[in-house]
Amino acid sequence: MYQLTFLDKVPEHAILHEAGEIARNRGHEGVTKFVNGVLRNVIRKGVPKIEDITDETTRIAVETSLPTWLTKRWITQFGSEKTREIGLSFMEAPSQSLRVNENKVTVAELQAELSAQGIETERNPYIPEALMMEKGSITETQAYHNGRCTIQDESSMLVAHALQLEDGLRVLDACSAPGGKTTHIGEKMHNTGEIIALDIHPHKTKLVDKAAKRLDLTNITTKELDARKATEQFEATSFDRILVDAPCTGFGVLRRKPDIKYSKTEADIVNLAQIQKAILAEVSTLLKENGILVYSTCTIDQQENRGVVEAFLQTHPEFQLERVQLPEKMQAYVKADYLELVPTDIGSDGFFIASFRKKLIK
């Protein structure tokens, strides 16, 4: 079916023959007749036209290959046209972006080094330390092995900016694996201060350790711990900054992980929102007065994003939402003080960031 519909260089007779042979080898003669019957019917009649589907939700779901329940949900949240645009964007090939470790090399120097090796990059227009891959592979280069760059989506790079980092701070990364944001924090603090990186799984804390070692960051300490039990291990008001990059449905990264839309359900959204609220409530007591707590997800579903933010503020009056601090060219995308980035905005993964400040007690 895919060949008949999308691959115009493969002759119909070749498709029929090959499909028949596969059916015969994998099944039996009855399967072969069934496959041939379906394909010949499509050749005679063609496939139904999407625009002939009268129900709007079903039409958008079919056109964008999104589950009907998710399409209906997003139409409520974003409207029909934006849901369609988001869905179509998830069918595009994802781009690859690099984060330059500016403690070791400038962006211009790395770009020139890679160019000499036939690897073409472009400056990211929104994030100063980001490069977009145009041609070539980075993982086998000395620049990558020596920690001069990291593969990271540009939307994820915004988190370190939102934390408003300074040298010498004590930072808690409550859900750190695989370490992209953790190491970015380490770089932004110029390998000073202390970053405690938590993850519930030991094999994932090892990923953070490996990333820190490659980048020569010595200010990161990993700990196997469920963030919902963080107060059992750390003293109250002992961190200057806290990042909760929470476990989520991942609906912002469907370009890279399309299986998510088939494996996740509405029940998962509800359950994850409860986990997100629990983590925020637990770690909030660990933040110093006037400290900053950043909440981020790689989903675009509003129940996990603005819904969690509103619930946290209602139950934690000692915190106030403040405008997310991002690179200058990203400020236009900050609405209602938080960032709700969808793939059609800058071509990145979908992402959400909210920033809270703990009020000073007078």
UniProtKB/TrEMBL annotation:
Transmembrane helix recorded as keyword: no
Active site: C298 (nucleophile)
Domain SAM-dependent MTase RsmB/NOP-type span(s) in chain numbering: 86-359
Binding site for S-adenosyl-L-methionine: C175, S176, A177, P178, G179, G180, K181, D199, D226, D245
UniProt subcellular location: Cytoplasm
UniProt similarity note: Belongs to the class I-like SAM-binding methyltransferase superfamily. RsmB/NOP family.
Protein known as: 16S rRNA (cytosine(967)-C(5))-methyltransferase
Native source organism of the sequence: Listeria riparia FSL S10-1204
